[in-house]
Structures are given as structure tokens and as C-alpha cells.
Amino acid sequence: MVSRTLGLTIDNLLSVDMVLADGSFVTASAEDHADLFWAVRGGGGNFGVVTSFLFQLHPISTVYGGPMLWPLEQAADVMKFWRDFILNAPEEINGWFGFVTVPPAPPFPEQFHLQKMCVIVWCYSGALDKADELFKPIRAFRAPAMDIAGPIPWPALQSLFDALYPKGLQWYWKADFFKDLSEKAIDLHLKYSAQLPTMHSTMHLYPINGAVHRASTSDTAFSFRDANFAEVIVGVDPDPANNERMIQWARDYWMALHPYSAGGGYINMMMDEGTDNVKAAYRDNYARLAQIKATYDPSNLFHVNQNIKPTR
Fold first, then answer.
1. Residue 109, phi-psi category: left (phi > 0), alpha (psi -120 to 50), beta (remainder)
2. pLDDT tens track of the chain, all 312 residues?
3. Triad 287, 288, 292: Cα angle to 5°
4. Which of 104, 102, 105 has the alpha carbon at shortest distance from 68?
5. How many CA atoms lie within 13 A of 47 on its CB side?
6. For every residue of 147-194, which 3-state class applies, written as one string?
7. Distance CA 154, CA 113 (A)
8. Distance between CA 256 and CA 60 in Å, rounded?
9. Distance CA 51, CA 109 (A)
């Protein structure tokens, strides 16, 4: 929610304490085990068990944020507005776009319960006395059917939807990065959003421009610094009987949009999809990661993940 402002979480990581495959203990940072520190910033759990993180912190307490929702028939215009707005907005303004089925619970008004709608969930971390003015063009573009954005404690915004997704649900994920959102891509989003297969199933587009772009594609293992959007398509439901239907929807949705993508997805939002998709996620960084894997985990002990195989 603050990536445009402060970069990715890995961009604010200063060091990690790790247990390696041979049982030894190291601290990795820019000064010590720099190759390992480079790899763990995006390389997942391939290199060891991280037992503690040291982060650069930032003073954020109350922000201006929350969801605005529009009817699905307005989604094309809202999506185009959001695309153009978020690529040029001040970096203190963050907001992800999604398709949702409105839960039958507060704070959503009863007349919208179980309707398919589009949503933008905002987070502005600048001066609160400037928020209303900055959000005027957003509200002026098209009045939301539901507007729940306002001052909110940062932890409350971060946990706003936790109750909707309790433990034990069935999940199926697909992911891609995009440099832009073409008219054809938007048309396909509209087609598949109208088919959301269960109440919990959703699609989110996260902006990853702004501060994220200030690092190069090779500064960390995370390589998609040239993308503007991270897409995740998620089939979710409590009943395993619905798995086949929601998995097929997620796969069809992803297959339709993938030709318009940047060619790889965010590794934390992917299922076990094989070596080719792992390589696509890391692009030119994969070979370096495989070499570092061979140094720190030559037997591939840490393989229950989006696996980077050690160079033999």
C-alpha cells in the first residue's frame, strides 16, 4: 500500500539473520555475505531460514485511505481513469484496483450485498490536511456507489479485509506483471470479472511505479522494476467442491491476459508452476540466483518453494 512512496519491502531491508542448509548461522547485509543478501531480496526461501529481519522504518501512523466501489458496468471507465491517474499521481498516493463481490456484512450497505463491483482501495500517506483536495479529482471523475475512504490508522487499513478471509479457505493463485493496460486487456478484464466464480474470488492490480522504479532490474533479485502493475487473480472459497470451477476461471483469466503481460509474475502470488515460470519471474537474474544457490544450498535442501535449482 505504500510501494509508490517507499518502494518494496525488500528495498527497506537492511540485513537478515539466517540458518543455512549446513546448519551454520550468518548475518547477510550489504557489507557481509552481500551475494546472499542480494539473493534473499526477492529470491524467496531458496537460500536458508531467515530468523530475523532488520528493516529501515518510516514514520507512518494515520493515513487517508480505504475502499471506493463502483458498479461493474462502470468498470471500464474507472479502470482507465485509475490507470492514467496512478501512473502520474504524487508518490504519496497509492491505490490498488480490483474486482470483488460485495460481502453481505457491514460496513457495506445491504442493497449492494453480493453484487459484483469494481473497487479502488486507496492509501495516501502525506499530510492529512491536503488529502481532501488531492482526492477531489478522484471523486469528481465519477461518484462512487460506496465511498469508505477517509482518515484511518495504518494498521487498521492493513487489516481491513482480514475477517473476510479466515484460515482454512481453498486458494488458487495466478500472477503476471504488466507495463501498461491496453484497451484490449481492459476488455478482457471486464469479461472475466463478470464471471467471478465465488464470493471470495477476486482480481487485484497493484501499482509498482514511483519509488519502486528507482532501483534497477539487477539491484535485487526482484527483476520487474520496469513494470507498472502487478496482477493477481485468485480463486477462493471455503468449499473444496468449488475448486475445479474457480481454478478453471483463474487459469482462463490468466491465459487471456498473459499475451499482454511483461512475461513473468510475482513469485509470492504463484502456485507450483514449474521451472519455466520461475525463470520467467526472475528473467536475467535467474542465472546469478542459481549460482548463489549452489554456494549456499548445493543439495537443494530448500526446495519446497518456487524453486531455484543450484547450478551444477
1. beta
2. 899 999 999 999 999 999 999 999 999 999 999 999 999 999 999 999 999 999 999 999 999 999 999 999 999 999 999 999 999 999 999 999 999 999 998 888 899 999 999 999 999 999 999 999 999 999 999 999 999 999 999 999 999 999 899 999 999 999 999 999 999 999 999 999 999 999 999 999 999 999 999 999 999 999 999 999 999 999 999 999 999 999 999 999 999 999 999 999 999 999 988 899 999 999 999 999 999 999 999 999 999 999 999 997
3. 120
4. 102
5. 29
6. ECCEEEEHHHHHCCCHHHCCCCCEEEEEEEEECCCCHHHHHHHHHHHC
7. 26
8. 39
9. 44
Grid coordinates standing for 103?
Answer: 460481502
- Degrees, nearest 5: CA angle 12-18-22: 150
What number of other Cβ atoms are within 10 A of residue 274's Cβ?
10
Instruction: Give the ranges where 235-300 is alpha helix by DSSP (H).
Output: 243-257, 275-282, 286-296
DSSP 8-state symbol, 198: S
Provide the whole-model pTM. 0.94
Instruction: Report which residue type is found at 269.
Output: M
Start-to-end Cα distance in the chain: 40
DSSP secondary structure string for all residues of 30-44 = SSSSHHHHHHHTTSG
Start-end of H helices in 42-182 = 75-86, 131-141, 154-158
Beta bridge partners of 171: 236
Beta strand pairing call for 150-153 and 62-71: antiparallel
